[in-house]
Each structure stands twice: as C-alpha cells, then as structure tokens.
Automatic annotation (TrEMBL), chain A:
Residue spans crossing the bilayer: 14-39, 51-71, 91-108, 140-161
Entry's Gene Ontology molecular function annotations: electron transfer activity; heme binding; metal ion binding
Protein's recorded name: Cytochrome b561
Stretches assigned to the Cytochrome b561 bacterial/Ni-hydrogenase domain: 7-174
Family indicated by similarity: Belongs to the cytochrome b561 family.
GO-annotated cellular components: plasma membrane
InterPro entries in alphabetical order: Cyt_b561_bac/Ni-Hgenase, Cytochrome_b561_oxidase, Di-haem_cyt_TM
TrEMBL record, chain B:
A biological-process GO annotation: response to hydrogen peroxide
Enzyme nomenclature, EC number: 1.11.1.-
Binding site for heme: 329
Low complexity: bias regions: 323-336
Function: Has an organic peroxide-dependent peroxidase activity.
Protein name in UniProt: Catalase-related peroxidase
A Gene Ontology term for the protein's cellular component: cytoplasm
Domain of life: Bacteria
Record keyword Metal-binding present: yes
Stated family: Belongs to the catalase family.
Record field: transmembrane: 13-37
Length: 188, 352
C-alpha cells in the first residue's frame, strides 16, 4: 500500500468525519430513547433504525476504501505498545461499525418486529423468531454500545495526545482539510 | 503551526487537563442523556415496574394483560377504509390475523371474575409485508388522561397511605368518569361478546396526504349476555378461556371494525374523554376469529402488540399514550422473552 502517504485519502477523511457524527448521534439517540416514555421515544426510534442501517452501508464502503487506499504509517518513534493499541483499536472500530447495525437488525428480526426504515420501506427479517436469540442480541447491542462509547473516548484521548503532547502528525492525517498529500512527515 | 516533535522531557500539564475535560464533558452528556443524572425522569423501566403486583412480576409473562389466549383468523376489508387511509389493509381483500384475548391484570393466574378489563391484541399482515398492530380494551374510556397520570394511578393504588387515592382523584378528576363502567356489574359471559376500543387516537392518511384523526372499535356480532362478576365467579377461574375455545370450535366469531372520525376540536390527545356519539363512523371490514390456541406455545406468545407498529397510511397523533405504551411494551417484551425458562412452552414440567 502507499506507505509514503502521510494523510488519509480525501474520501476516507470525509467518511471518517461523517461517520463520527452519525455514530456519536446513534449512541446518544440509543441511550436517550430507552430512557423516555415521551413522544421523543418514537421520534428517536424512527431515526435510530434508518441511521443505523446507513452506518452499516457507510462502514462497508469505508472498509473497501481502506483496503484500496491503505492508511498512512504511524510515526516511526511511536512506542510499540501505543502502536499496537492504535492498530488494534482500528480493527475493533471496523468490527463494531459493522456488527452494531447487524445486531440491531437481527435483534428486531428475532423479536418478530418489522424493521421499518421509513413509510412502507422495510427490511426483510434476517433471523427466525426466537426469544433466546433476541435476548442474546439485545444484551450484545447494549454492552457493545457502551464498549463503543468507551473506545471512542479512548480514541479521542489518544488523538489529542498525539496532537497536544507529541504533535507528530497523526492528528493531521485525518483532521487536515487540505486535499494534497504532504510528501513527507514534518520532522521524521 | 510550527511542527516540532516534543521531547518527552519537557512535560506540560495542560494537554492532559484538556484531554480530561473533553472526555469528562462527553461522559457527563452521555450519562445525562441516558437519564442517570435524572432520578425523577419517568423511564419505561419505572413505568413497567409500577405495574408489578406486591410480590413482583410474573416471570416470563407480559407485565400487564398477563392472562390471555391466542387466536388466528382474518380481517376482511370491504374497501370503505381506503377513503380515509392509503394503508393496504383497507383495500378490499382478506388478510391474516394473529391475535390474543386477554385480561387487564399483571397476574397470569388471576380469576376471570376479578378482572373488569378485557383486552384484545391483533396483528394484521398485508401481502407487501406491512403490519398493523393494535391492543384494545373493552372499557369505553381510559381511566386517566396521560401516561404520567397512569403512573400516578399505579403508585396511588399500591400506596399504603390512606389518602393516596383521594389525592390522586383530586389531581385527576377525569378518573371519576371511568368509575361507572369500572363499578358496573353488567359484565358479559364471553370474550366474543365484548367490544374492543382503541381509545387512543391515530391519524389516517389518505392518498392525497390529508390526515384524519380517528379512533376505532371492534364491535361483536355475538349478542352480549349480561352476567354479574359473582355469577361469572361460579363458572370457574378460567371460564372465559374455556368458553371462547368451545365457542370458536363450534363456529368462527365475527367483529365489525368501526372507524370513528373526529370533528375539529375533539379531544384527540386524551383517551379519558369520549368523543360525542354523533361522530361519523365507518364500517371498514370484518374480523373473523377462526382458531383458538393456548398462549404457552401459541403464535401470539412472542409477539409484542405494540400500538405504534403501523402501516404507511396510519400514524400516531398528538395522543401521548402510544409512544409511552411502545416504550413500556418493549421493556416488558425484553424482560419476558429473557425469562423464557420461567414459562416453559410445554405444560409438563411447568414451574408455576
Ligand atoms: C452503529 C450502529 C448502532 C449503534 C451505535 C447503536 C446504539 C444503540 C444504543 C446506545 C442503544 C441503547 C442501549 C440501551 O441502553 O439499552 C441502542 C438500542 C437499540 N438499538 Fe441500536 N445502535 C445501532 C444500530 C441499530 C440498528 C441498525 C437497529 C435496528 C435496525 C437498532 C435497534 C435498536 C433497538 C431496537 C434498541 C432498543 C433496545 C431495547 O429494546 O432496549 N440499532 N442502540
Ligand atoms: C401508559 C399506559 C399503559 C401502559 C404503561 C401499559 C402497559 C402494558 C404492558 C407492559 C403490556 C404488556 C406488553 C407485552 O409484554 O407485550 C400491556 C399490554 C396490553 N395493553 Fe397496555 N399499557 C398502557 C395503556 C394501554 C391502553 C390505553 C390500552 C387500550 C386501549 C392498553 C391495552 C393493552 C392490551 C390489550 C394489552 C395486551 C396486548 C397483548 O395481548 O399482548 N394498554 N400494557
């Protein structure tokens, strides 16, 4: 892959920020909706399902882009544990972005709910009706959602650490708005 | 910005303060949204817990309307409903129903004669896969005007404070209009002789996009035979389920689905207020109950009769109940399906 690249490709950066907004919204919508009985409940549920499916589609596109463009190399002087953490967290993020919507969809299928996206548009059921599968998936959706939020907080801390403490260009790899790739990393 | 790699030696505190602040604020916003910082928020969890009898809920069973029996049948639309709603379920034709007759009690072993409220859940599916779910009761109006008042009613009736009910009625005088029906001893002797009312208002959306606020009722073809609860008690604790099983085995039972359209200004947001009797009412078709099956392993068991599962052409209105019910039914469903083992599907080895 293009290891000389110091930034993610423009489509990758656009997708990253778009999905960051969507996923954070989903986490807040999720915990908000299950804690209220007001009419907000219905509004939030009606956003949660189509937005979650949209994230599934975007995550698959993003995975394809990642396989195509690759990712800029991490700074050579980054301590090994941090490098490992950075790489591992990327795998977990991709797994969660794809698994969470699938679990949501499967959980509704196992509970015999129609998976309505909007109006008369609904998705097919992907699992047979089963209380035990529903329970398993419901617990998975719940615990993985909190793991997801925890991981995002760690990710934000790490990236701010790169920027504010190390200032090593990792932040700019995704945050930069410029469309050209720098030929070289600033100081290494 | 000048790019210079910081050496690990010149330690600065402020970046870590910034990081802690960002993470801390995000976590607090999340906790607030989840309701963890708002102990007074009426959550689905609280509302459903409020329904439980003193000994706790009956595990594996619905948290309300717990005693019930499944049925299958059809809805035969006559086409009249299409003037009000574009939902395919109103297009002339016959569509399958999975339903459930039930008693309005959190106790699945309650005696029939102890429970005034009888209910009906239906799920109608059209060939395009759209569903219409509805859970209705035989009462002409709902005891309270909004979900918070329903929670207050549950709390007051469970309270040991002798003034609790009096205070509740003081704050919710509409409850008094429910009492004549609740206290009447003119019950019927069969699930087949009851009307079932949506009570909540919904909007029917027609082809042109015009919205019509409506309520609906299933009106029985069977002649009601009045019976007092005392007489019903003598027929045994589970008479209603035995009776409906025999009756349907002898011949299918029918109800007309009557849709009532509100006039401007009618109280659509308050199921405690009946609409005037002269409102336009349209017969949109017939429900036929063809077969009864026990709930334990019947087709209605794992269905949530969530009243907000609606086809395109029917939506919720300004009535606050359907949202609250949807949130509460989901909570109840999640609990009872996780407790499957406490309500075995075969009667042998039943723990109850
Ligand atoms: C990236 C995608 C998703 C994220 C981050 C997400 C996140 C969440 C969160 C945080 C909750 C609240 C958990 C709780 O406190 O109980 C939740 C609940 C829920 N989610 Fe998702 N979700 C996603 C996708 C989906 C999809 C695609 C569907 C369905 C098509 C779905 C259906 C649901 C349902 C039905 C609930 C309520 C669960 C319950 O009954 O308690 N989710 N989700
Ligand atoms: C805020 C008010 C209400 C609350 C908290 C509430 C709560 C519940 C709960 C927890 C269930 C069990 C759901 C399940 O596990 O599937 C249930 C079932 C039912 N409710 Fe309500 N309910 C409310 C209002 C109403 C109203 C207004 C009606 C009728 C017009 C109604 C009629 C029924 C019926 C018929 C069932 C049985 C459905 C079935 O067979 O599964 N409820 N209710």
């Amino acid at each position: 892959m293009t290891t000389t690249r110091t930034r993610f490709a423009v489509p990758q950066r656009i997708l990253h920020w778009l999905m960051a907004i969507c996923i954070l919204s989903m986490l807040f919508i999720g915990v908000g909706m299950v804690s209220t009985i007001t009419t907000k409940y219905l509004t939030l549920v009606q956003i949660h399902k189509p937005l979650g499916i949209a994230i599934l589609v975007l995550a698959l596109i993003r995975l394809a882009l990642r396989l195509y463009y690759g990712a800029p190399a991490l700074p050579a002087d980054l301590p090994t544990p941090m490098k490992l953490a950075a790489e591992l967290s990327q795998y977990i993020f991709y797994a969660l972005m794809i698994a969470m919507p699938l679990i949501g969809w499967a959980m509704l299928s196992a509970a015999e709910y129609p998976v309505v996206l909007f109006g008369s548009v609904h998705l097919p059921s992907i699992l047979p009706v089963s209380p035990s599968l529903h329970t398993l998936l419901w617990h998975a959706h719940y615990y993985l959602a909190f793991a997801f939020f925890g991981l995002i907080l760690m990710h934000v801390s790490a990236i701010l650490f790169h920027k504010l403490v190390r200032n090593d260009g990792v932040f700019e790899a995704m945050a930069s708005v410029s469309t050209d790739d720098q030929p070289e990393r600033p100081t290494h | 910005m000048a790019q210079s790699s910081a050496s690990p030696k010149d330690f600065r505190l402020w970046p870590f303060v910034v990081i802690a602040a960002v993470v801390g604020i995000a976590a607090i916003c999340f906790a607030y949204t989840a309701g963890w910082l708002s102990p007074n928020r009426l959550t689905p969890k609280k509302l459903v817990a409020g329904l439980a009898p003193p000994g706790g809920p009956a595990l594996g069973h619905r948290r309300n309307h717990s005693k019930g029996i499944c049925f299958t049948g059809t809805f035969e639309a006559n086409g009249e409903g299409s003037a009000l709603s574009k939902a395919p379920v109103f297009v002339r034709g016959q569509y399958p129903i999975v339903g459930r007759f039930n008693l309005g009690t959190p106790n699945p072993n309650a005696e029939d004669a102890m429970v005034r409220t009888r209910g009906l859940g239906i799920l109608i599916t059209t060939p395009d896969g759209q569903e219409w779910r509805s859970a209705m009761i035989n009462a002409p109006i709902f005891p309270v005007s909004n979900p918070q008042a329903f929670y207050d009613l549950l709390t007051a009736s469970a309270s040991k404070d002798p003034n609790a009910m009096k205070n509740f009625i003081g704050a919710n005088p509409g409850f008094l209009t429910f009492l004549p029906w609740a206290k009447s001893d003119q019950w019927t002797e069969s699930y087949a002789e009851e009307p079932y009312n949506s009570l909540n208002s919904f909007l029917f959306v027609d082809e042109s996009g015009t919205k019509h606020p409506v309520r609906w009722s299933l009106i029985p073809a069977a002649q009601p035979v009045s019976i007092s609860p005392a007489e019903l008690g003598k027929r045994g604790p589970d008479y209603l389920e035995q009776e409906i099983t025999q009756r349907v085995a002898a011949g299918p039972q029918h109800w007309k689905l009557m849709v009532t359209v509100a006039n401007p200004g009618d109280p659509t947001a308050d199921p405690n207020k009946a609409w005037p009797a002269d409102r336009r009412t349209i017969d949109v078709g017939t429900m036929t109950v063809q077969q009864i099956e026990p709930e334990r392993d019947g087709p209605c068991r794992d269905i949530n009769y969530d009243p907000t599962v609606l086809p395109a052409g029917i939506t919720t209105s300004d009535d606050p109940f359907p949202a609250a019910r949807s949130a509460a039914y989901s909570r109840s469903y999640n609990s009872r399906t996780a407790e499957e083992a406490d309500y075995p599907r075969t009667a042998t080895g039943a723990k109850q």
